[in-house]
Design goal:
The chain is an all-alpha fold and about 90 residues long. It has helices at about 5-40, 45-60, 65-90.
Length: about 90
Amino acid sequence: MSLDDLRRQIDDIDAELVELLAQRFKASLEISAEKRKADHEIHDPARVDAVLAHITAKNKGPISNEDLKKLFREIIAISTEMQEQDRNVADEV
């Protein structure tokens, strides 16, 4: 496969990742609404640990578990921030 072919492959995968991340963040905002209804805290360390355990159990490489955890910690941090903003907006309404 040529360099251009490989780059197109990466571009296609990136587009899929963007769509999947959008789906994940939308689900996260739905979770935020449920947390508001139940008066639960936004940040749930036990859930973070469970997510990290789940993704590392599924990891088949070539990314290391530590690098995968770094990536998902960032995704989770963005999700948490979005949930907090969502809660603040909902509280103002």
